[in-house]
Structures are given as structure tokens and as C-alpha cells.
Amino acid sequence: MVGVGSGLGLVVPAARPVSVWRQRNFQVLWSAHTVSEFGTRITFFVIPVLALTTLSASTGQLGLVSAMETLPFLLVGLPAGALLDRWDRRRVMVVADVGRAAAIVALPVGYLAGVLSVPLLCAVGFAIGLCTVFFDIADQAFLPTVVTREQTPDGNSRLEFSRSTAELAGPSIGGLLLQVVTAPLVLVVNAVSYLVSALLLCLIRTPRTQAPPPGAGARPTMRSQIAEGLRFVFRHRTLRSLALATGISNLVGLGGALGAVLTAYALRDLGLSPGQLGLALSVGNCGALLGAALSSRLIRLVGLGPVLIAAKSMSGIAVLVLATAAPARAVPTLGAATGIMACGITVYNISQVSLRQAITPTGLQGRMNASVRFAIWGTRPVGALAGGYLGSVLGTRPTLWTIAGIGLLSCLPLITTEDVRTLRVFPSLSVD
User: Fold this and answer.
1) How do residues 324-352 score in pLDDT, each as one tens digit?
2) How many CA within 13 A on the CB side of residue 319?
3) Is 67 within a domain?
4) pTM
5) Cα–Cα distance for residue pair 121/26, rounded to 1 Å
6) Nearest to 408 by CA among 292, 323, 309
7) Which residues of 323-345 are buried (b: 16+ CB within 10 A; e: fewer)?
8) If residue 3 lies in a helix (H) or strand (E), which one and from where to where?
9) CB neighbours of residue 21 within 10 Å
């Protein structure tokens, strides 16, 4: 590719896009994002273990605790998206990190004061989830401000790799930490991680990221902005199919039904210690590395649509493997299941989030992310409650078979949508 020199008619080579790794703002954003994601995933692993080992919580109570952590996405996800298209997204992320640090400190304090209880765990989980709503939506909408739109898929793949790795490595690190210190002290470390993330975000210098409506007319109401975001997502065939597929899988995934029964299944049914569970999950995290390394090659080889469908099916396959675990081979079986799941989640998230960003105008990024998150994260508290209930009534292993079947069905919205099924490459990046 060549470029034309100004005035002299000279033809000079066009500058190659600068790698996102060479941009200071992206380096800082990635560091803050990674620290924050690991802190969140470790927290969401340690809280159920704390409930199980310290408070002897039932499977149903574990489901309730897990549900409270994601309930805010169902309650405030939509207005959060509208607000984040008005507010400074970097500032929101800083406030959310500080809020999560303050909330999580309540658990060690409650433990030392002798007032730790399941209701307190639920309250803290809800507060952390509320801050996470604003952080996650702002995080995805903030990226196109830090890098050029042409670099968004590359930058997003880095962030999604950290997110996917944290979702699976967080529990493993949490399990290993629990072998050294007690659960309340692990949560103190997590509080520090949120403060580190907030400090890093303060180092980013970009223009204000809110997007006020152009023109001199009256400012749209929040209701109209929320409605616009929902219409954009659910009238767009590609976005609608991605939201449905991801929502179904999250219903039975780690943040939903599977998360509600996994700790009880591993520690009670299979007789593992928190450290052994952490080891199994750590081994499986190699799948995330494999997925990140292969995603671009797979898309070039077989096309974006088939990769999305195949990656989405891998979580259901992983739970099938998980359900076959026996105490004598629990660690390798859990490691294999986690590896399959990690690979699929990483490939799918890198592909689908980059696709969503590519087809959404900048001014709608916050509302699009909020609408999609409402659909895909709003199913998690429902799934967690259902998983906890089924685990108490049917037992954990029959619940896992049910989860696996529903997980495999999550591919149907992608398979039945021609715009996704036949997609070969990322569409041209959308502009305002």
C-alpha cells in the first residue's frame, strides 16, 4: 500500500499500524484490566469456598451467593449502559475498582468480628457485582478510545485473553492461595488488587469519553437511550444471535448453574481440597493459551462463523467430561474439562466481542455492551439459583448432565442464523 505526499505528488509507503503493545495507554489499560479481572475471579471463587468451609453452607445457599454476585447485571445493566455513553468511562472504572475494594474488606472484618454469615456474603457479593457492572461495560466501551478502530480487534483479543484466562485461572490461583492462608486473608489480597487497578487507570491520559448527543436539541431521556440500545441489538440479526447463544451458555456456565455446583461437586463429592481443585484448574488453563494462539489462524482457515459455532459447543463438551469424574482420577479429569472449556471460551470471546465492536458505531458502544450484557449476564443469577436448587434436589452429578445438555444447545442461535453461519471474516469496521 502506498500513500501520496502532500503538495509534491510524491508517492511514499503508507505507515504500518502501530502495534497496540507499543501504545502506552493500551499497556496501562491492559495491566489494569488484567489485575482487576484476576481480582474479581479469585473473589468469586473464594466466597463460595468461604461459605462452604467456614459456614457449612448448603448447595442451595451456594447458589444464592452466586446469584447475588451477578444479579446487578439484570437489575441495572441497561441504565448503566445509557449512563456510560454520557459519563467519563475511565473515571467510572476507577470509582468501580475503589468500590469493590471497599466492599470486599467487609468480609475479613466480619470474620474477625465473629459476624460472618451467608447474608453478609450475599450483600458483599451484590455490592461487588454492582461495581463490576459499571466496570465491565465501561471497559469494553473504553477500548476504542484508547486504540484506533482498526486496532480494536487486536486490542480486544489481548483484553479478552486476559478476561478468559482470569475466568479460569482465578479459581485455580484462589485454590492455591487457600492452601497458604485462610479465605478472609485471601480477600484482603483481592482488595489490594482492585486498588492497584484503580491506580493504573489514573495513569491513562485520553480525552473525556462520554458521547453527548450532537446538535442543540433536547438531550434524549435515559429511557429512550436504553430503548435505542435494545432495538439496535435485538433487531440486528448477528448481535441478536450472539446475545441468545451467549445468554444460554451463561445460564449454565461458570457464572450460572455450573458455578453454583462446581465447588460442592469438587470438595464434597470428589473429596478434593481447595488446593487440589486449584491445581486441576491451573492445568486446564493451558487451554486458554492454546485458544488465544489459534483463534486468528482458525478464522483464516475455516471462517469466523464456523469458529464461533465450534467454540461455543466446547463448554457443553467440557461439562460432559466433568460429569464423568471419579475421586481416583478427579484432578486429571477436571484439568481436561477445564482445558476444553478454557480454549472454547477464549476463542469465542475474542471472536464475538471483536465482531460486536466492529459492527457497532462508537456512539452506541456503551448501550450495545449494556444491552448485550443484560441478555448474557442477566441469565447468570437465574442459572445460579436453578443450579443450587437442582444440586440440592437431584444431586450434583445429575445436575451436571443437565448443564451439559443445555450448554450444547447454546449453539442453535448461531447455527440457525445465516448471517453468522456463513460469515468468513470480520466485517468492515463500523463508523458513526
Assistant:
1) 999 999 999 999 998 999 899 889 988 89
2) 29
3) yes
4) 0.73
5) 35
6) 309
7) bebeeeebbebbbbbbbbbbbbb
8) strand 2-4
9) 11
C-beta separation of 242 from 424 below 8 A: no
Which three three-digit cell numbers place residue 76? 441495572
- In a domain, residue 302? The reply is yes
Grid cell at residue 428: 468492515
Confidence of residue 219 (pLDDT cuts 50, 70, 90): low
**Cα distance between residue 245 and residue 104, in whole Å:** 32
Residue span of the structural domain in which 388 resides: 20-203+222-421
Helices and strands, number each (H, E), in the chain: 19, 2
- To which residue does cell 448481535 refer? 239
Count the domains in the chain: 1
- Give the mean pLDDT of 390-408: 94
Q: Count other C-beta atoms under 10 Å from residue 369's C-beta.
A: 27
Look over the chain and give the mean of its residue pLDDT values, rounded to a whole number: 83
- Cα–Cα distances (Å) from 400 to 58, 67, 98, 250, 261, in that order, read 17, 18, 36, 14, 8
**210 lies in a domain?**
no
DSSP code string of 139-173: HHHHHHHHS-GGGHHHHHHHHHHHHHHHHHHHHHH
Expressed in angstroms, the distance from the first to the final Cα of the chain is 25
Confidence band of 41 (pLDDT split at 50, 70, 90): confident
Half-sphere exposure of 24 toward its Cβ, with a 13 Å CA cutoff?
A: 6
Report residue 1 as a C-alpha cell: 500500500
pLDDT at 73 over 60: yes
Number of CB atoms found within 10 A of residue 170's CB: 25
Q: Is residue 2 within a helix (H) or strand (E), and if so which, with residue range?
A: strand 2-4
Whether residue 150 lies inside any domain: the answer is yes
Which helix (H) or strand (E) segment holds residue 230: the answer is helix 222-234
* Residues 44/69, Cβ–Cβ less than 8 Å: yes
What would the pLDDT profile of 165-205 be if each residue is shown by its tens digit?
777 677 777 777 877 777 778 888 889 989 999 999 998 87
Residue 215 confidence class, pLDDT cut points 50, 70, 90: very low
Alpha carbon distance 64, 68 (integer Å)? 6
Residue 422's CB is within 10 A of a number of other CB atoms, namely 11
Residue 120 has pLDDT above 90, yes or no: yes
Instruction: Show the cell assigned to 239.
Output: 448481535
Q: What is the CATH number of the domain that holds 169?
A: 1.20.1250.20
Say how far apart CA 68 and CA 54 lie, in whole Å: 19
Lookup result for grid cell 485520553: 206
Bridge partner list, 13 = 2
